[in-house]
Amino acid sequence: MAKVQVGLVQMSCTSNKQENLDKAILKVREAAAKGAQIVCLQELFTSLYFCDIEDYANFDLAEAIPGPSTDALQVVAKELGVVIIASLFEKRTAGLYHNTTAVLDADGAYLGKYRKMHIPDDPAFYEKFYFTPGDLGYKVFQTKFAKIGILICWDQWYPEASRITALMGADILFYPTAIGWATDQDEETNKDQYSAWQTIQRSHAVANGVPVISVNRVGFEQNGAMKFWGGSFAANAQGKILYLGSHDLEETKVVELDLAESDFFRKHWPFLRDRRIDSYQPITKRFIDGD
Any stretches that span the bilayer, and where are they (predicted)? Predict the structure, then answer.
């Protein structure tokens, strides 16, 4: 299928897990009614972004995958005939947790999961306290409508992650994310940060010749100290912005992707076939300084 309808769900969250799940399901229904075939939800959509503090009580938000949330979403996926990309807090076993995205096919089948590989530890983003780095490697999933690659938030800064996922045959790269501005910083800093975030992801589209879909949460959290900046977007295989979300509002948007463009752009901008793979061994070093 050359053309695919992709739904982006940008929403705010509350402290009520069931309320957030129910809201996400309504948004998936809205996207499907608009023609979406693949619907991507934002990172950790069943809760507030809890990684702003190190609190053992937050581990109670985690669940098995497959588990209650995927069970509910599988029913919806089958009913609507849509693929659902669902980012969840995974409890793997006692004391072992991951930031994980599950993929549910259009017939309701659970296709598997991707565990976030790159884990941040910044002020207000204390993810290393909660999440074990992913151990499944990079993943692609053959869905009814396209072969999709899933990466999660902090993964978006790493060209190696997008490259490997593209080389595994991904037709589209999806990034569920949760990133925002500290509300005490100036507007110029805000603009610079958002520009860097969008630019690096668009560069993955250009370098790999695949569309990129980035879905971010919106709204004030952390007692007003953080404004999650929304700004979800879809870019085609040349990095052209097809849709740009609001910084302030919830939005459910459906965008048509022409997957045939990847072949066209890769022919005319042959970055993949011009790669000097024989020269890339040093990239596996932490730093190239002789040690």
Answer: none
